[in-house]
């Protein structure tokens, strides 16, 4: 029995790239089918993430004209991670293995062969890892590096230089569905699943056409979300800092009492102001950090659906 492969592709305003993506993915599936590696019921599954352009109309057209294309449409824009999850949860009903990739052809399609090979060698999860960042802009390269460093510091277990280009077995996705959190950070969650994993290196290209849907602001939120979803180290650091300040204050207390006993207590206005400002700022920031977590708890307890599928086109 050969393998049913689904390729899940989240799309947000991707009308410029969809034709080319469909062409290349179709060719890839065709060749894999012909060599008998995958079954001919394998499919591409586009997830329309509430696009405002012709993305969904195009998916519907391909659905009619191309035997490999299927699609689901979310009721509104929910962001890349939720769109991806919607795709994975839908595809697992039909597929043995699911590969997720971006619509913009940045991920090397030829790595799919190696993904499947690793799966056949027993891996339940195969991570696509970029071999270099030469083709990224200077800015993206450095912010990405800072991102991984920060995540590691905060105790989030990430696969270095791996985005969301990966293969997951049906079983792994089944287990992923047990993670009920609303604040999704898949790159942090999937390593938690365990199982036998493998990595495949590939060269990541420039976006084929159109603009990045991840401007700096979204990237920063993504990083904060990633840390607060997977680690409570920021709260720990505040506790640690508070403890150190406490120790220092004991030393200062002794120093001040000594000064008082010796009769010279007038000096020290500058120190006063500096310390008041410093601790004022630090306390507000600390409340903010704790607030981030409280906010997350609030969102999690509501347990709202992470996506709503408005249309499904499968065959
Ligand atoms: N995307 C999405 N919903 C969003 C934003 C992006 O589904 O709200 C998709 C987008 O269509 C693409 C993928 O997520 O397939 C990655 O986005 P992009 O290529 O713009 O990000 P970058 O590669 O610049 O980080
Ligand atoms: Mg991209």
How many distinct beta strands? 8
Separation of termini? Answer: 20 Å
**Number of structural domains:** 2
Tell me about the biggest sheet?
Answer: 8 strands, mixed
In what range is the share of β-strand residues? 15-25%
Globular, elongated, flat, extended or rod-shaped: what is the shape? elongated
Largest sheet, order of strands side by side?
Answer: 7-5-6-4-1-2-3-8
Rg for CA atoms: 25 Å
What CATH calls the topology of the largest domain is Spore Coat Polysaccharide Biosynthesis Protein SpsA, Chain A
Bound molecules: uridine-5'-diphosphate, magnesium ion
Give an account of the 3D structure.
- It contains ten helices and eight strands.
- With 315 residues, it is of the alpha/beta class.
- The protein folds into two domains: 5-229 and 306-313, Spore Coat Polysaccharide Biosynthesis Protein SpsA, Chain A; 233-302.
- The protein has an eight-stranded mixed β-sheet, sandwiched between helices.
- Helix 1 (18-34) links the parallel strand 1 and strand 2.
- The radius of gyration is 25 Å and the shape is elongated.
- Bound molecules: uridine-5'-diphosphate (UDP) and magnesium ion.
- Uridine-5'-diphosphate binds next to strand 1 and helix 3.
């Amino acid at each position: 029995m050969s393998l049913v492969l689904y390729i899940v592709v989240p799309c947000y305003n991707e009308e410029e790239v969809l034709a080319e993506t469909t062409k290349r993915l179709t060719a890839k599936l065709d060749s894999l089918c012909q060599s008998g590696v995958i079954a001919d019921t394998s499919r591409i599954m586009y997830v329309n993430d509430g696009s405002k352009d012709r993305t969904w109309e195009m998916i519907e057209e391909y659905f009619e004209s191309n035997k490999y294309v299927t699609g689901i449409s979310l009721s509104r824009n929910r962001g890349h991670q939720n769109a991806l999850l919607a795709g994975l949860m839908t595809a697992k009903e039909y597929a043995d293995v699911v590969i997720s990739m971006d619509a913009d052809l940045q991920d090397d399609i030829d790595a799919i062969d190696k993904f499947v090979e690793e799966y056949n060698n027993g891996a339940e999860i195969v991570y696509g890892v970029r071999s270099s960042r030469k083709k990224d802009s200077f800015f993206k390269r450095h912010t990405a590096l800072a991102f991984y460093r920060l995540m590691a510091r905060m105790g989030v277990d990430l696969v270095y230089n791996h985005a969301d280009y990966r293969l997951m077995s049906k079983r792994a996705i089944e287990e992923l569905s047990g993670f009920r959190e609303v604040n999704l950070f898949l790159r942090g969650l999937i390593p938690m699943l365990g199982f036998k994993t493998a990595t495949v290196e590939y060269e990541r290209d420039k976006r084929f056409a159109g603009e990045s849907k991840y401007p700096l602001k979204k990237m920063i939120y993504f990083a904060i979300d990633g840390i607060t979803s997977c680690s409570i180290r920021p709260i720990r650091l505040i506790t640690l800092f508070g403890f150190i300040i406490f120790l220092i204050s004991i030393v200062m207390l002794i120093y001040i009492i000594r000064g008082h006993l010796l009769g010279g207590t007038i000096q020290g206005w500058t120190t006063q102001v500096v310390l008041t400002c410093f601790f004022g700022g630090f306390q507000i920031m600390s409340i903010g950090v704790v607030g981030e977590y409280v906010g997350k708890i609030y969102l999690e307890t509501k347990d709202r659906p992470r996506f709503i599928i408005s249309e499904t086109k499968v065959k």
